Amino acid sequence: MRSLALAVPALALVALALYPTIATGYGLRAVLQVFTWIALAGSWNLISGLTGYVSFGHVAFFGAGAYTGGILMASAGWSWPVAALLGGVAAGVLALGMGWTCLRLKGPYFAIAMLGLNEVLRALVSYFEGLTGGGNGLSMPTLDATVPIYYAMGVTALAVTLGARLIIGSRFGLRLMTIREDEVAAEAMGIPTFRHKLLAFLLSAIGPGIAGALTARDQGYIEPLSVFPLATTITMIVMALFGGKGTVWGPVIGAIVLFVAQEMVWARYPYIHPLLFGAIIVAVVLAMPRGILGLLQMKYRLPRTI
Amino acid sequence: MNVVITPAMIGQVVISGLLSGVLYSMVALGLALIFGVMRIINVAHGPLLMLGAYTTFFLYSAFGLNPYLTVPISMAVLFVVGLVLERTLVFRVIEAPELSSLLLTFGISIALVNAAQLAFTSDLRAVEYLTGSWVIGPFAFSKSRVIAFVFAGALTGGAFLFLKSTRLGKAIRATSQSRDVAMVCGIDVGAIHRLTFGLASALAAAGGALIAMIVAIQPEMGQIWTFKSFLVIVLGGAGNYPGALLGGMLLGLVEQLASLFLTTQLSEVVAYVLLVIVLLVRPTGLLGGRQT
Amino acid sequence: MEDVHKSFGGVRAVSGVSLSLPRGRIYGLIGPNGSGKTTLFNCITGVERCDRGRILLDGAPIQHLKPYEIARRGVGRTFQMIRVFPELTALENLLVVTTGPRAAAEARARELLAFVKLEGLAGEYAGNLSYGQQKLVEFVRMLMRDPSLVLLDEPAAGVNRTLLNELLDAVRRLRDAGKTVLLVEHDMKVVMGLCEVVFVLDHGEKIAEGPPGTIQGDERVIEAYFGR
User: Fold this and answer.
1) C-alpha distances out from residue A209 to A69, A74, A131, A212, Å
2) Cβ–Cβ of A127/B266 closer than 8 Å?
């Protein structure tokens, strides 16, 4: 049983690694997108799924990474792998700042603050036009790097998932969950909740930061609307919720299923995406609050690190 | 910015701040009620305001009704909408962890906004009824803002009177303080929840209706109102209803003052920075409120 | 070693209460509803901050510390309404409290669960356990850090006779091991039978203090409970 559990993901990894050799442009892009969503949803899960502190503005980290990486690549000519890592660093710094101020409060206040973060960052980007190109956007020197970026994003997605696995399987992860369950009791048991929340928040920002910078490189052009859209936050939340927040593979499953569904069913009706996603969120919260994997986990006593 | 600031400008700004402040107070009061009575963060508050705005717009453009007459109609419509939402969806997450109610109302809000985009398109609409300004001495006040101030003031005052003096109002306040005690006193808590949600939606609708006459409206307009309403609650203190009144005025004042020195692009940033500062310095609100 | 000495004047809840708990005995805190007992607990554990006064643990002031810092100094508590972590298993509930090497922590957790005869339910989600079982889990979870001061908030509430006797037995063993126990309780039989010294609060003030026998006969106590 153990070897099966290892063999399946191993095979999948090999298949994904070899995929670019046979893929079409569309196929490559599609899998790249799935990797991106896995990185985003999986990261959102680290803070919101585990600690219960809902981050409504998580796309802010994606955008921050995109602009940091974009500026470094466009104005300073840095190579994209380094720019991507720095995008992650920038996102982390932002998370530290936001988290230090907002996580010391109870959940609702944090959620409110995150709600506004997105808009503020977008406004700031527009304001500092000289650096960011403002509303006109930022262009990077053309470079066909789709395949290397595919791998980079794949590694990012893998790192996020493995990170989740490590965290959820550890006592650190358990302590994060106690914050969700009963923060007062957790404190009474000697758990420094603020520190834990901050660390989780920091970790949850790095993945989106790197993904943002990679996406910037891939698209070759970014503008405030493209990297700070509410739709991205909505999508990553739906994916994590649907697949199972608080689980390791939940966001992965959610990302794959919803992306495929999106491409196959809803690509024809792009105008109702948010409506449908909104409806899904409502349905999941009411009927399946732990998501698919969470439901199975409870029902069949699956290990926590699923 | 090299601008000479005259006392007249300060005066104008202060009065403008108060004018817009009451509007903030009214809308935030609705949110404060939901939060106080049901312990729910209603992320969909802004979209409800948006629907109120559109209701007024359509009544005005389709039937030529005096838009000020549409305010009570908008309120009534959204009151019903709020009741329905509570009855079908929201009541299920009242006892649930905060995460659930946040996500649920979030889901509702994006559904509402998207539905509005489909129905109304994202084109800007406006109700141009009362244009121009009244000039008194060195001050100029946009007519629509002044009338909005009057309406909002009346409605907010009426809401407070309702809460203070009527039996229903007292029941709402009782439930807000302690749900269990209220139940034991024979208060139908479920009905109170529905009423509160409907009332809050009506207040939001009034806000939307009045705003429709001041600025152009579009489906996405609600978002920033949700955020600002929360800011007002944070300023005034959670569960502190009179605090919402002062919080709204304060926000209005700060925004207008900031506009003297900063471009409009940064006005949202101002609100945000204000939020962060207050959260850091006095998280229980300037007037002191309940910690969640 | 002096365990706790507090004097503080609070608003509403607790007014000018001073208690001194020398180490190694079982103390009871009683009083009619609303007399400020749980508030007092909350002040000791840092959940609430007292407005005036000091709380000293082993001579060192702790009233300004955060709850988790106080817990780390050896103060353990249970709650009036059980607060286990429902989506964690019983074992995880205990495990989560410690930071040392995992193997040792797990061994100790299992040991404690066995102490209350719940080792078979170690892998069960705490939320699925019965009321009594949850109470026991909360009890041993508190013991994971080997606290020197144990605060029990209504340990007898909603518990059947057999379980209650087990709990009381366990409390006595804690005292024998050198711990200091302070419990808030409404069940007079428990208080009189278990506690060596009883404090009585009424309307936020301490109105009596002494061995159970003395308290029972104290006029002010009777008045507080049965009305004026």
Assistant:
1) 9, 17, 19, 5
2) yes
The pLDDT of C49-64, averaged and rounded, is 79
- Parse chain C into domains and list their residue ranges: 2-226
Interval A162-169 mean pLDDT: 94
Tell me whether residues C96 and A181 touch, CB distance under 8 A.
Answer: no
How many Å separate Cα B12 from the centre of its chain?
23
Q: Is C92 on the interface with A (CB under 8 A)?
A: yes
CB distance from C71 to chain A under 8 Å? yes
Q: Specify whether the CB–CB gap between C44 and C50 falls below 8 A.
A: no
Check CB contact of B93 with chain A, cutoff 8 Å.
Answer: yes
Q: Would an 8 Å CB–CB cutoff place B122 in contact with chain A?
A: no
For β-strands B139-142 and B133-136, DSSP reports them as antiparallel
Q: Which amino acid is at A131?
A: L
Q: State the ipTM, two decimals.
A: 0.84
Residues of C within 8 A of A189 (CB-CB) are: 68, 71, 96-97, 141-142, 145
Q: List chain B residues with pLDDT less than 70.
A: 1-3, 264-265, 283-292
Name which of A105, A112, A286 is nearest B92 (Cβ-Cβ).
Answer: A286
Q: Given an 8 Å threshold on Cβ–Cβ distance, is B107 in contact with A101?
A: no
Please name the member of C84, C88, C145 whose beta carbon is closest to the beta carbon of A190: C145
| Contact yes or no, B with A (3+ CB pairs under 8 Å) | yes
Q: Find the CB nearest A181 among C88, C99, C145.
A: C88
Task: Specify the pLDDT at position A270.
Answer: 74
CA proximity to B74, closest of B53, B95, B89: B53
Give per-residue pLDDT as tens, B210-254. Answer: 998 888 888 988 888 888 898 898 888 777 788 888 889 989 988
Which parts of B89-166 fold into alpha helices (H)? Answer: 98-120, 143-165
Q: State the nearest Cα–Cα gap between B9 and chain A, in angstroms.
A: 25
Given this model, what pLDDT does residue B286 score?
A: 63
pTM: 0.87
Beta pairing partners, C57: C4, C60
Which of A174, A186, A188 lies nearest to residue C95, judging by beta carbons? A174
CA angle, C43 then C57 then C168, to 5°: 75
B274 interface with A at CB cutoff 8 Å: no
A140-178 burial, b at 16+ Cβ within 10 Å, e below that, comes to: beeeeeeebbbebbbebbbebbebbeebbeebbbbbbbb
Could you tell me which chains touch chain A, where touching means 3 or more CB pairs under 8 A? Answer: B, C
User: Which tens digits make up the pLDDT trace of A50-93?
Assistant: 998 989 889 999 999 999 998 888 888 888 899 999 999 999 99
Residue-wise pLDDT for B6-40, tens only, equals: 777 888 888 888 888 999 999 999 999 998 888 88
DSSP string, A80-91: HHHHHHHHHHHH
What ranges do the domains of chain B cover?
Answer: 23-229
The DSSP line for A259-272 is: HHHIIIIITT-GGG
* Closest CB to B265 among A107, A127, A277: A127
Residues C2-226: name the CATH superfamily: P-loop containing nucleotide triphosphate hydrolases (3.40.50.300)
How distant is the Cα of C79 from the closest Cα of chain A, in angstroms? 9
Report how far Cα B248 is from the mean position of its chain's Cα atoms: 9
The structural domains of chain A, ordered by start, are 31-299 (1.10.3470)
Chain B residues within 8 A of A271 when measuring between CB atoms: 114, 117-118
Work out whether strand C197-202 and strand C26-30 pair parallel, antiparallel, or are unpaired: parallel
Distance of alpha carbon B37 from alpha carbon A114, whole angstroms: 24
